[in-house]
């Protein structure tokens, strides 16, 4: 597969046939190439997974990490396929062996310089509409978390910072210690900030060419995948 984002709209049936080594997500049928995660991203993701995995040992719910396909609208168009960084599924019937069909109970996304707009806006809308009961956005650079809890079809958001202990609403008795999540980020913080500064300069340069936000997002993702 090549130049997928410039071609037609796809469904999961198309997606499942691709043998390209590049990872993609489908957002309303449009293929979005995914950049490789940074070291900072992986450290935060790994610690979150560790804490959830330890809590869920011997319990019905299960925790997964990317890459693993989640088909948010498999009962209709089946054209939204995401790979959350970490997610929890409590309904065994949602598994088909290769993917999760429908909304996970909890989704956690880790921000990186290449995807803040994508996760902050597009995915928040998708997860709310699909019925994800709890959605966290973790910012390892600024060491904070936004936790969205679904109530009456709307997300209620709470903000947490380094050192806070966050209750997991969908898992009674489970708490995540942010001091541990962000413990290893200090040594990588300078490099991450440099990466963010470079990304901001790239975005500014693209804007000066007259590209719109969607075109800039595609260009940045292509750039990160090439390097």
CATH architecture: Alpha-Beta Complex
Helix content: 25-40%
Whole-number count of domains = 1
Question: Whole-number average pLDDT?
Answer: 86
Largest sheet, strands/sense/barrel: 6 strands, mixed
Radius of gyration, taken over Cα atoms and rounded to an integer in Å: 17 Å
* Helix and strand composition category: alpha+beta
* The CATH homologous superfamily: tt1808, chain A
* Strand tally: 13
N-to-C series of helices and strands = HEEHEEEEEEHEEEEEHHH
Query: Which regions are unreliable across 5 or more consecutive residues at pLDDT < 50?
Result: none
Helix run count: 6
Globally, the shape reads: globular
Could you tell me the CATH topology label: tt1808, chain A
Strand order of the largest sheet: 3-6-8-9-10-11
Distance between the termini: 18 Å
Q: How much of the residues is beta strand, in percent?
A: 25-35%
- What is the top-level CATH class? Alpha Beta
């Amino acid at each position: 597969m090549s130049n997928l984002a410039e071609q037609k709209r796809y469904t999961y049936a198309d997606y499942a046939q691709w043998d390209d080594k590049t990872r993609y997500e489908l957002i309303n049928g449009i293929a979005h190439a995914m950049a490789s995660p940074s070291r900072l991203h992986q450290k935060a993701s790994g610690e979150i997974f560790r804490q959830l995995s330890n809590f869920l040992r011997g319990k019905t719910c299960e925790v997964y990490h990317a890459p693993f396909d989640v088909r948010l609208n498999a009962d209709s168009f089946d054209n939204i396929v995401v790979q959350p960084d970490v997610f929890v599924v409590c309904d065994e019937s949602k598994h088909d062996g290769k993917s999760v069909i429908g909304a996970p109970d909890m989704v956690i996304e880790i921000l990186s310089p290449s995807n803040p707009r994508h996760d902050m806006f597009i995915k928040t809308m998708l997860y709310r509409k699909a019925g994800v009961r709890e959605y966290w956005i973790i910012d390892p650079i600024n060491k904070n978390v936004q936790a969205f809890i679904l109530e009456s079809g709307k997300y209620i958001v709470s903000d947490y910072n380094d050192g806070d202990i966050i209750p997991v609403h969908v898992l009674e008795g489970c708490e995540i210690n942010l001091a541990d999540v962000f413990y290893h980020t200090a040594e990588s913080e300078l490099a991450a900030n440099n990466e963010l500064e470079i990304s901001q300069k790239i975005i500014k340069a693209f804007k000066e060419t007259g590209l719109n936000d969607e075109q800039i997002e595609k260009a940045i993702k292509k750039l990160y995948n090439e390097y």
